[in-house]
Amino acid sequence: MRGAGILYPIFSLSSPYGMGTLSKEAYEFVDFLKEAGQSYWQVLPVGPTGFGDSPYQPVSSFALNPYFIDLEDLIERGLVTRQEVESFDYGQDLTHIDYGALYDGRWEILKEAYVRFKGDEDYKAYCQKEADWLQDYALYMTLKQFNDGKSWMDWPEGYRNRDPKALQAFIDEKGHYLDFYCFQQFILDQQWKKLHAYAKSQGIQIIGDIPFYCAMDSCDTWSQSKNLLVDEKGQPSYVAGCLPDAFSATGQIWANPLYDWDKMKKAKYDWWLSRFGRAYELFDVIRMDHFHGFAEYCAIPYGDETAENGILKKGPGMDFFKALKTKYPGLKMIAEDLGTNTPEKVKLLEDTGFPGMNVLQFAFTGYGHDSTYLTHKHKPNSVVYTGTHDNPTSLEWLGTLNDYEKEFVGKYVHSDIYNPGGFVWDFIREAYRSVADTCIVPLQDFLVKGEEARINRPGSTAANWQWRLEPHFLSHELAGSIYALTETYGRLPKEEK
User: Fold this and answer.
1) Is the separation of the CB atoms in 92 and 466 below 8 Å?
2) How confident is the model at residue 319 (pLDDT cuts 50, 70, 90)?
3) Which of 64, 98, 364, 443 has its CA 20 to 30 A from that of 418?
4) Does residue 315 contact residue 261 with C-beta atoms inside 8 Å?
5) Is the C-alpha dihedral spanning 133, 139, 145, 149 positive or negative?
6) What percent of the chain lies above the pLDDT cut of 90?
7) Are 430 and 439 in contact (CB under 8 A)?
8) Cβ atoms within 10 Å, residue 422
9) Interhelix angle for 343-352 vs 318-327, to 10°?
10) If pLDDT is split at 50, 70 and 90, which confidence band does 492 have?
């Protein structure tokens, strides 16, 4: 069934407190989606972020980001006062996130709220239900707090190697600090469930995003070393990355530890199944990042400065997805299959039956008239995007094209490339015209935003994950324009047709 949605990270929502949260602005966006005739809200990974602030390097694959806690809700609960909340500086730029200011202010507010929090039966039930991941996460965060924020690899040996006696001694002394992190996740769980239920009531499905790899400095890597290719000290033998290709002569090093798929298979992929179970509690549809890694992956010797000595290894393939589908029949997934199309990846995508991705920007840069990303080559069982969080906005992208590419895209889209605002909407229209069942457009494109609204610049650590929408910027007129486009190309929710 044809449908449409908007890509808009939680952190990019408007908010008076430094970054987007699960606040009234989130509910207002759900209302906007409904008014615009949309079916989906796609978000980026929602886990707690670490150094670099990337949602694709979370410190936990199960926890939610404490920065997403709605402070207005804490005020209503009587856990903090408005005066206390407004006494902190969360950053002065309403269009960009100041993570340094958030780190200084948000944690202090949450500490104030925790002091006044009285755990009830609901809280105890939550902690018991989520104990399998929550206890490790709370212990990891507390240990990190008392080790000056250092990576777990730099902790004292007993903590680093998870020596039972050392950990128990720490818990006996500092155990009450663990409860602070459990409290955060409890509040987040309640707030997320409320927002998710509201979205469902309005006919909006939330598409969540699962990073493929675990960050090196994460609770997952520290607590699940048995599932990773690491030695007894936690040192990886190989790390993830990408072999040299047309984009990089020396390849890319991502530095994530690799999975020990043989051990995971013997354990019937229990960690991965738990991870998906958690994701399906939060989302209606999952976008699986780096789907290619299930078919084959690059292993680069740890310590190498380039990926030139990397080798390709086989992933778990269809064996993993058979286990996943048995555990969760009817699961909905979008496979992020961008990049090199190898026979192994193409076959795995076909065998799973999951829809892959078509990024329209890719159709006109370097591929020529034979690009599989051109709309006349799309398949119904796929998702078309104008661009993703890793791409420039369509307005910015237009300015990067050479003369040949501009001429080609202008002819193909039937648009005037010298009228940038009009071109962006024609480009969106081209995506909507696709036979792909689902069309997702970043909110910045509907707003005809340029470089200032770029979410991520791969390969650069500067100014990423910071863009926020100005308060009160979405209008009924914009929703009406999107609705008209959605109706024209048969993408309205079924009951609205």
Assistant:
1) no
2) very high
3) 443
4) yes
5) negative
6) 88
7) no
8) 13
9) 20
10) very high
pLDDT of residue 494: 87
Model confidence at 486: pLDDT above 80: yes
The distance from CA 282 to its chain's CA centroid, rounded to whole angstroms, is: 12
Close Cβ partners of 210 (under 8 Å, ≥ 6 residues apart): 45, 61, 275, 276, 279, 286, 287, 288, 289
**Euclidean distance between the first and final Cα of the chain, in Å?**
12
- Give the H/E segment covering residue 125: helix 121-129
pTM for the model: 0.96
Distance (Å, whole) CA 166 – CA 106: 31
Token digits of residue 23: 């606040």
The reported pLDDT for the residue numbered 496 is 63
Please give the share of the chain, as a percent, with pLDDT higher than 70.
99
* 211 contacts 45 by C-beta, under 8 angstroms: yes
Q: Where does 302-350 show beta strands of DSSP type E?
A: 311-314, 333-335
Amino acid of residue 41: W
Answer yes or no: are the C-beta atoms of 469 and 22 closer than 8 Å.
no
Strand partners, 205: 40
| Cα distance between residue 177 and residue 62, in whole Å | 19
Nearest one of 186, 184, 181 to 146, comparing CA atoms: 181
Under DSSP, is residue 334 helix (H, G, I), strand (E, B) or coil?
Answer: strand
In the three-class reduction of DSSP (H, G, I as helix; E, B as strand; rest coil), residue 6 is classed as strand
List, for residues 295-310, the tens digit of each pLDDT value.
999 999 999 999 999 9
Q: What is the mean pLDDT of residues 180-196?
A: 98
What are the structure tokens assigned to 3, written together? 């449908």
CB 10 within 8 A of CB 22: yes
Specify the pLDDT at position 248: 74
Strand 296-301 relative to strand 311-314: parallel, antiparallel, unpaired? antiparallel
Whether the CB-CB separation of 449 and 13 falls below 8 Å is answered with no
Taking only the tens place, the pLDDT of each residue in 399-429 is: 999 999 999 999 999 999 999 999 999 999 9
- In 380-492, which ranges are continuous DSSP H helix? 394-398, 403-413, 420-433, 443-446, 476-488
Please list, in sequence order, all residues whose beta carbon lies within 8 angstroms of the beta carbon of residue 404, skipping any fewer than 6 positions away.
none
Cβ count within 10 A of residue 375: 18
Nearest C-alpha neighbor of 292 from the set 251, 261, 336, 325 = 336
Residue 90 in contact with residue 159, Cβ under 8 Å? no
pLDDT, average across residues 16-45: 97
Token couple for 476 = 């009924």
**Residue 70 identity:** D
Q: Looking at the predicted structure, is the pLDDT value of residue 1 above 90?
A: no
Residue whose entry in the numeric block shows the structure tokens 């480009």: 427
- Helix then strand then coil, in percent of the chain rounded to 5, is 45, 15, 40
What residues act catalytically?
289, 336, 390
Average pLDDT, the chain: 95
Question: For strand 333-335 and strand 296-301, is the pairing parallel, antiparallel, or unpaired?
Answer: unpaired
